[in-house]
């Protein structure tokens, strides 16, 4: 009887597309790191004024090196990163809470897609939009470096696209 159950389980598992398995596992890993990072941040708390000053000094050293290389775009990006870091640290608990909620939505979406439900895809899109846009709730748009926005949109878009390739399997 156990053998019959194992065979049935394997058959049910074979129905899930291999590509969905790969994309879901990548998402589970990413979301796992997000949860672990959130827990770590909550334990350590917001950066102290001294830590923020040290970070600013290190980034300013990077600006000096970039000036020697005449990399004006990156100089401006590092300046924006300094301002963005300060703003995010000022809203530390709100940022951490929203990141946690966003990751829960993403995890729910991935689990639903893993089980074959299309509603999971919609939740994953919501998660992706929150992930891309949440920085604007705490930081002025002028302070967010362009490469950060492009990177977030690119990664989210690629994962949404990859999940969309599996929609025909989902109900």
What's a concise summary of this model?
The protein is an all-alpha fold and 171 residues long. The chain has a domain of 104 residues.
Number of strands: 0
Percent of residues in helices comes to over 70%
The main pleated sheet reads as:
none
Helical stretch count?
Answer: 7
- Which stretches are poorly predicted, pLDDT < 50 over at least 5 residues? 4-14
Basic shape: elongated
How big is the Rg? Answer: 21 Å
Q: Kindly report the average pLDDT value.
A: 90
Strand fraction equals: under 5%
Query: What pattern of helices and strands is seen along the backbone?
Result: HHHHHHH
Task: Name a few traits of the molecule.
171 residues, mainly alpha, elongated
């Amino acid at each position: 009887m156990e053998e019959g159950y194992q065979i049935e389980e394997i058959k049910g598992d074979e129905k899930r597309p291999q590509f969905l398995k790969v994309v879901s596992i990548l998402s589970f890993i990413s979301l796992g790191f997000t949860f672990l990072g959130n827990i770590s941040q909550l334990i350590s708390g917001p950066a102290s004024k001294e830590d923020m000053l040290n970070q600013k000094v290190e980034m300013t050293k990077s600006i000096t090196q970039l000036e020697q290389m005449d990399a004006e775009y990156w100089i401006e990006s590092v300046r924006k990163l300094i301002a963005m870091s300060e703003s995010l640290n000022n809203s530390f608990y709100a940022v951490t809470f929203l990141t946690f909620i966003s990751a829960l939505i993403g995890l729910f979406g991935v689990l639903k897609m893993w089980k074959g439900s299309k509603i999971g895809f919609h939740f994953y899109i919501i998660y992706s939009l929150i992930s891309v846009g949440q920085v604007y709730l705490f930081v002025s748009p002028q302070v967010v470096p362009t490469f950060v926005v492009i990177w977030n949109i690119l990664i989210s878009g690629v994962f949404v696209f990859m999940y969309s390739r599996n929609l025909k399997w989902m109900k």
